[in-house]
Write a structure and sequence with these properties.
Length: about 80
């Protein structure tokens, strides 16, 4: 299973962007979505260092809510063991 991480573009330089998610910044390649019009402030789904899709802020927020729920559930299982 592949997991994409929603990130917000902070700065763009050609096919590369500096992106942020929950305070963590990463360099991300925009090469796979070069046909998309993306700019700082836009959100993208990132997989292994490549932006694979432009997404809305709401989609990014929903994804993080789901990931946070999964992490909380995992922490709860660890606490019960």
């Amino acid at each position: 299973m592949c997991l994409g991480v929603p990130m917000r573009i902070v700065e763009r330089d050609g096919f590369m962007a500096r992106c942020d998610a929950k305070g963590i910044e990463r360099s991300v390649s925009l090469f796979l979505i070069q046909h998309e019009d993306v700019a700082p402030g836009d959100h993208v789904m990132v997989h292994v260092g490549y932006a694979i899709q432009k997404i809305s802020a709401e989609e990014a927020r929903s994804s993080w809510e789901l990931y946070d729920e999964m992490l909380a559930a995992e922490d709860g299982l660890r606490g019960d063991a």
